[in-house]
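All the exercises in this workshop are built on plain-text protein records. There is nothing in a record beyond a sequence line and a structure line. A learned vocabulary of local backbone shapes supplies the integers on the structure line. The question running through the whole workshop is how a given chain folds. Here is such a record, shown just as it appears in the course material:

***
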Amino acid sequence: SKVTTQTNIAESATDVVDLAAMTKHLGVRLSKDELKLLRQKLDANADGAITKDEVRLAGWKALEDRWAREISLSVICKPTNKLDHLGEKVHTLLDYGGTALFAVVGTQVAGDHGMNIVGCALVGCVAAMGG
């Protein structure tokens, strides 16, 4: 039978979930070995049966791990002192300088190959954007 809604997979939180039907419903193709690994990962109480609560718990744990990672990365990326701010400004300056140099070199190469001014400008822009 075709799974049309999530309620067909498990009626209540304590019902056993058919992982094959759930993954098919979500559009994920898993081999038998991959389904076995998924069962092992989701089976929190090691009873061999996967319940809707165990699926939810695994989902929340994955989300919490992502949130913790994002929060940690946001702290790392923010400058905390004047030297960090200077480093950011130097990095931005070098970035703009590199883009400008790519444009100049692209324009020069196009001119050396006999292109007109419009062609040179176009090649310079493409070289700068492609970097």
In short: Residues 105 and 124 are 7 Å apart (CA to CA).
